Automatic annotation (TrEMBL):
Single Gene Ontology BP annotation: DNA alkylation repair
Alphabetical keyword list: Dioxygenase, DNA damage, DNA repair, Iron, Magnesium, Metal-binding, Oxidoreductase
Name used for this protein in its record: DNA-N1-methyladenine dioxygenase
Keyword Iron on entry: yes
Cofactors, names only: Fe(2+)
Length: 205
């Protein structure tokens, strides 16, 4: 099934504001209607140019424990975990989703990092989305499709403050303000999980 702009229906009106110090995080479950999110998931799974990137950690090469694709406006280059990525041109499908997100949030995006967690063994380690090209106060719009996975947050200041949130199919998580400066996030491995796709829309300066 192919998603047309009309089928990318928005549903949820509920927004949860996470009460975390020095963070600005909102969670909207049911941002995308279930069937539209399912069709989006299937289409992205089949049509995305998935790659397994290599990252350098302490001088050693590692394959990332997930597949990804970086899409965005021509001419944007992006540093991510010591790799430079040139974006794939926008697909019609994701241009449509971007426009929906922009009108729903009032923010502008020029790129998206798409991650595929093939099963529970795929993960995303502790990090902040704080690359200099995302500016002082990065705005990240994160759409989740498929299997529910835990999104963990921890304070950088060693206070021990942490938070865990289950990111559901069709949900939107918005991170703004000082969130990336003071907090890290991760998607830990999980014993049993089906495939999940996450899209983080960003604005690269
Ligand atoms: O999969 C997720 O929900 C988070 C992805 C993420 O943090 C990233 O790609 O920077
Ligand atoms: Mn991130």
């Amino acid at each position: 099934m192919t998603n047309t702009p009309k089928q990318l229906g928005l549903l949820g009106k509920r927004t949860d504001v996470l009460q975390l110090p020095d963070a600005d995080i909102e969670y909207r479950p049911g941002f995308l209607e279930h069937a539209a999110a399912m069709a989006l998931f299937e289409q992205l799974l089949a049509e995305t140019d998935w790659r397994q990137e290599t990252v350098q950690v302490y001088g050693k090469s590692h394959l990332t424990p997930r597949l990804s694709c970086w899409m965005g406006d021509a001419g944007l280059d992006y540093q991510y975990s010591n790799m430079t990525m040139s974006p794939t041109p926008w697909s019609e499908l994701l241009q449509t989703l971007k426009a929906r997100l922009e009108s729903a949030t009032g923010d502008k995006f020029n790129s998206v990092l798409i991650n595929l967690y093939r099963d529970g063994a795929d993960s995303n380690g502790w990090h902040s989305d704080d690359e200099p090209e995302l500016g002082e106060s990065p705005v990240i719009a994160s759409v989740s499709l498929g299997a529910v996975r835990d999104f963990k947050l921890r304070r950088k200041n060693k206070s021990g403050e942490s938070y865990s949130l289950a990111l559901e199919h069709g949900s939107l998580l918005m991170m703004r303000g000082s969130t990336q400066r003071y907090w890290q996030h991760q998607i830990p491995k999980r014993a049993h999980a089906g495939p999940r796709i996450n899209l983080t829309f960003r604005f690269v300066y």
